[in-house]
Write a structure and sequence with these properties.
The protein has about 375 residues and is mostly helical. It is built from 13 helices and 6 strands. It is globular, with a radius of gyration of 24 Å.
Length: about 375
């Protein structure tokens, strides 16, 4: 009788176990792809044209911490040390790739997105047992972003040169890095600028019924809503809600999550469209094609949103997108780390711990002096 009962229990659990085993195998395959991309001759997790793979570094630090595997951590640190060669010691900030740092053909290609992602890599290196050099370089990158890329009214430009308009995608990456830096240093001023930036991007780019839009030269919404703008800023709002505890940020993150499910999710093919805008009537949306790398960002965002909001609808949509691209995951290539981080987030959102902020001490204000005329004699 006991044997029969055990068998029935195992049969009842079999589908879930099978799915769990498939998820684990898929992740191990992605980890193997990322590991195979490590090249010590080029500097570590580095592309052929000399640009670091920031997502591979992030994943390597996460696996080193989670699995206690010193090889993953060593590879991540090796890449971060190599990355120092891309830093512009004269003007500040990271060049995009190695050839841009060549004094004979130096460029000003120092995009905000690359500096933001590398700031996060430096913070990981510093917090995972790195030396003072990682902390110091992170401070220099934060200073460069503050001096050159930040807009005093809130938000960040897309790069050192070019249009100064606020674009959602690079702002999502920059604000996340700024929140990470604020949390790592427990600096309330950095936190407050990040929150100010979250507010300004929403006020400047949000279009009711459409989502976050990119402005034209006159500041008006143009084009169709883009998936990456919603997901990158969505992740920034999730992190803002997690670190600072603002309800407004959680509400905005949920608005974007609902928008993805209503307009961007493809009910026939699965996954999320690159662009989407609502059509008139019937609640349908006009969708463009699906991008493999952009869906990784969507899966990660919805997984993080599910964890902080407790809403399983978002996690279910993330799982559906993963299943829609299951064949592509067998040969993810340069996107392997992004997809590994996205699928990991379905189970374990890797959000930083909330800091104890170094708030300035409140001093009692001096009592106002009251003029009292002396009594006449």
């Amino acid at each position: 009788m006991n044997t029969l009962l055990t068998l029935l229990v195992l049969l009842a659990r079999h589908p879930a176990s099978q799915a769990s085993s498939r998820d684990a195998a898929r992740l191990e395959h992605l980890y193997a792809e990322v590991s195979a991309g490590y090249d010590s001759a080029r500097g570590g997790f580095v592309t052929r044209d000399g640009a670091p793979l920031e997502s591979s570094v992030e994943l390597a630090f996460a696996l080193g911490r989670e699995q206690g595997d010193p090889l993953w951590t060593a590879r991540a640190r090796r890449t971060v040390v190599w990355m120092h060669a891309l830093y512009d010691s004269a003007g500040g900030g990271f060049f995009l790739r190695l050839k841009d740092a060549d004094p004979m053909q130096q460029s000003f290609d120092k995009p905000t997105s690359a500096n933001a992602r590398r700031l996060e890599n430096l913070i990981d290196a510093w917090q995972r047992g790195g030396d003072g050099a990682q902390r110091d370089l992170a401070a220099h990158v934060a200073d460069y972003m503050d001096r050159v890329l930040a807009d005093g009214r809130g938000g960040f430009t897309a790069g050192q040169v070019g249009d100064r308009a606020l674009l959602p995608e690079p702002n999502g990456q920059a604000i996340r890095a700024w929140l990470r830096w604020a949390a790592a240093t427990a600096d309330p001023r950095a936190r407050d600028f990040a929150l100010k930036s979250l507010d300004r991007v929403w006020e400047s780019c949000w279009s009711e019924g459409l989502g976050l839009m990119r402005p034209d030269e006159f500041g008006n919404p143009s084009g169709a809503p883009r998936l990456v703008d919603q997901t990158e800023m969505g992740r920034a709002y999730v992190l803002g809600a997690h670190i600072a505890g603002r309800q407004a940020d959680l509400d905005r993150a949920r608005n974007l999550g609902d928008l993805l499910l209503a307009h961007f999710e493809d009910p026939e093919k699965g996954g999320f469209a690159e662009v989407a805008s609502p059509r008139g009537g019937g609640g349908k949306a006009h969708r463009g094609g699906r991008k493999f790398d952009q869906n990784a960002s969507a899966v990660r965002y919805l997984s993080e949103l599910a964890s902080i909001s407790g809403m399983n609808d978002y996690r279910d949509a993330a799982r559906r997108a993963g299943q829609a691209f299951e064949k592509n995951l067998g040969h993810a290539g340069a996107d392997a780390a992004d997809w590994a981080l996205a699928l990991r987030a379905l189970k374990v959102p890797d959000l930083p711990p909330r800091p104890k902020w170094n708030e300035p001490k409140k001093t009692e204000s001096a009592q106002p002096r009251v003029f009292r005329p002396s009594a006449g004699k």
